Amino acid sequence: MNNGGAGFSRRAFLGAGAAIGGLALLAPTRAGVARAAAPFEPTREVTLTAGEMELKLLGPDKPATRILAYDGNPFQTLRMPRGTRLKATFVNGIDEGSTLHFHGVRMPNEYDGVPTLTQPLVQPGSRFVHLLPLDDPGTFFFHPHCDETGQAGMGLAGVLIVEDTRDPAFDAEHVLCLKDWRLAPDGSFLPLTEPEGASKAGTFGATRTVNGAAAVELKAPAAGHVRLRILNIDSTRIMDIGVEGGEAWLIAVDGHALAPVRLDDLPDGIWRMGPAQRIDLDIRMPADGSPVTLGDYRAADIYRFATLTAEGRVGKPRKGPLALPKAELPKPEMKRAARLSFTLQQATGQAVKEIALPADDPLAKALIDSLCVGATTYWGIQSESWPTGANRNVPPPLARMTTGNSYRVEIKNETRFPHPVHLHGHAFEVLSSSLDRLPRHFADTVLVQPGEAVEIAFVAAPGDWVFHCHILEHMETGMMGWFRIV
Ligand code: C2O
Ligand code: CU
User: Fold this and answer.
1) Count of domains in the chain?
2) Contact 467, 483 (CB under 8 A)
3) Is 103 in the pocket of ligand 1 (CB under 6 A)?
4) From the CB of 468, is ligand 1 less than 6 Å away?
5) Residue 137 lies in a domain
6) Distance, CA 448 to ligand 2 centroid (Å)?
């Protein structure tokens, strides 16, 4: 497997792996991390095996690409009813260390899949069992949390839909996974990261796909309501999702319902979506059966990725929007919330502090062995960078918080590039944007534009949770920190 480029050296990894086999013993069970998760009887069990497979991404008559996928099923979608107790066994069938992370799912910290911080790296041929209570309905996804630029960049990701029987009945539903690929004409991968990209807006793929194809044709009855679950699972690209031809409402962000907003009423009539962000749209098909198109309007040449054409018609047309039941999430107490502020920064020389956990700290030790660190430091949060290159020092937590308390956190972007910022293990409320462009909503990832300050609030859940940019190259070149919540 060629993981492309400077980010990680597989050879270095394999060498180290051979030398330190049995590393799992070094699992960081730090005070404050190790806690007994409420055990449960699983109501559903799945095994997710990461492996290689071939997929024709360049076109049906072009050479295939060797991608990575879980169970040989690119972007496979798991659907589970809300309330499921999911036992998910991750089997690492690729030739470098990996972990499985369920993005956006609120869960016990020990199943979060962050190597070093919450579990040891899963070595090739090994497995790790996650016990996940699926209490929040919505559109989630899962992906590795080591060498993400390489592994997720090569396709390793899947969709988790937690269904709610209280949802309104839609006339059709479709899942759309947007992802670009960096491919040479012979179907092989181009380097997945380049310094020029990693230090700036990211390294973009030129082969754009939705569900692995250049575009999709979908069906829905005329005058019917279609639920579209749209996921940006690209490593890099920020997209401006717009709809032409039908009435469209934004009904959920990152899986969580919000009071429906007409897409046309948002600035520029689009929803700007960074890597890892998801939206659910309710689209009302025109009564005359004319088609609806979906596109990414961010670039001058619009990428039209889906067309909905009418097939049949609904008996009794319903007015929109079809709102989802209100999200049932811990509601931060604004009056008593402690305030914190973090600045996203370019790491220019001295801007990034070299403070670290002491070398004999179990976390620092485990990190050295996990090798889930990038090559160079370009970014930081609040003058601290996640370890990169020869620096294997885990910085101290960005904040120490108390379980059950409410926090109001400002995220300021002092760089020239937008950053989709993700907090693990929580659904936070997005309160405001200094650019005044966001409706109030719950999310697990929020895009912060250059010069913008976004305020979020959440009720702290116990554990060590990372807080990072989801442009994967940014995360792997320093833009990651963590909160310790006890
Ligand atoms: Cu999508 Cu750290 O995660
Ligand atoms: Cu970023």
Assistant:
1) 3
2) yes
3) yes
4) yes
5) yes
6) 9
* Domain end call among 163, 183, 198: 163
**CATH number for the domain harbouring residue 201:** 2.60.40.420
Least confident of 27-31, 214-218, 354-358, 468-472: 27-31
Residue nearest ligand 1's atom 1 by CA: 103
Find out whether the beta carbon of 101 lies less than 6 Å from any atom of ligand 1. yes
Nearest-angstrom CA–CA distance, 336 and 354: 33
β-strand partners of 86? 44, 132
Indicate whether 290 and 397 sit together in one domain.
no
Any idea which residue has 């379980």 for tokens?
A: 403
Tell me which residue of 242, 385, 406 sits closest to 334, measured CA to CA. Answer: 406
Shared-domain flag, residues 381 and 398: yes
Between the CA of 351 and the centroid of ligand 2 the distance, in Å, is 17
In sequence order, which residues have a C-beta less than 8 Å from that of residue 73 and are 6 or more positions away?
A: 158
474 lines ligand 1 (CB under 6 A): no
Beta carbons within 10 angstroms of residue 217's beta carbon: 10
Give the amino acid at 240: D
Give the position, in ligand 1's atom list, of the atom nearest the Cα of 480: 2
Structural domain of 93: 44-163
Q: Give residue-wise pLDDT tens across range 110-151.
A: 999 998 889 999 999 999 999 999 999 999 999 999 988 999
pTM of the model: 0.89
Dist. CA 26 → ligand 2 center (Å): 31
Is the CB of residue 424 below 6 angstroms from any atom belonging to ligand 1? Answer: yes
